[in-house]
Amino acid sequence: MSETGIQARRAALEAIFGAAVAAAHPAGCLPPHLPEAPPNGRLIVLAAGKAGGSMAEVAEAHYRERGVDPARIAGLAVARHGYGRPLERLPMIEAGHPVPDAGSVAGAGQALDLAAAAGPDDLVLVLLSGGASANWVAPAGALTLEEKRAITRHLLRSGAAIDEINAIRKRLSRIKGGRLARAAHPARLLTLAISDVPGDDPAVIGSGPTVADPVSNAEALAIAERYATPLGAARALFEDPANETPKPGDPVFARSAFRIVMTPAEMLAAAATAAAAQGYVPLVLGADLEGEAREVAAAQARLAREALARGGRTAILSGGELTVTIRGQGRGGPNQEFALALAVELGGLAGVSALAADTDGTDGGAGAATDPAGAVVDETTLARAGARGLDPAGSLADNDSTGFFEALGDLVAPGPTFTNVNDLRVILVDGTAA
Asked: For this UniProt entry, which segments traverse the membrane (predicted)?
């Protein structure tokens, strides 16, 4: 394959990723769902997550254009460090992710206070996105922030799925698992959410602060024990009936509604449309893939080989959140690990290029907004690695996908995208290249 063909595939990958991210930005998906301001009471906007700043920014513009008196609008936006936006009316707090920090505690405390102060004539508008679990942290009982951080770090390294992690987080919190709705009652409550989770379960997005929690304390404790989570004093929270989350049918949800404004499936559909515009036939595997990153990479490498054998041009597309069980000491994330494992599995197969990246702009890493979102691979990846003395298998064993792709200049690093609809993996197969 010529260098021109390889570069053309790389440009196509970047265009597909860009189209997917643009489709998921709050500027396009949020305005049609924003409600009218209440006729008599206040509009209290509580935004949290990686899109918390941008959702609040869009909401402010929406109500400003409709002439709503700014004095009737109150609230707060909390987003990951580096994801803040310049807001006119609402205070903006940047907080830690994936491990919470003091900003997370301050943001959650203020959100709970604002919700609790809402009256029957007020509308509490919650703008929720992935990352809210870390951005809104209100330790329950006598639990300290550092104890919560230690539990979160362990779970992130354990290979636990996001719904399992969130089930545990709800027991450790005064805001998650429907507790924000409890604080806001009896005000009217509307949650508009950008989903980043498989199946778009409202109880999982941001750990479900405004919806009923179907998981019991005992079930959450079993999950924690399955991953050998060092709960310490936090175990008492799982064993205390008074710390149970509100369940379906609880009166605190009587005036509450929940609406999803953007899903990973819609993002993936936008990616498929962009792939078709680039001349590839989309093969969509689904928006909710889960599993160990390197195992999913092996399965998709087989699909790429089959597509290459059939001929033509195919774009293999998938979403969902993969996991990495960390055994090494390197740097990386599930998208970069997927890309590295895919490169190893493909073995330099001509006519195949791929991109795997998180739509929020960061993939694992140390929690900085400048962390890479993912990586790109093609038929030259292994050869270029060999020329630089890199060992792909060794890097994979050490979970050092960032170091590997950084040395090759193949990291995808768009910076904050101000949205979050989970991961996008694109494999372009050009069976006409031979």
From this structure: none
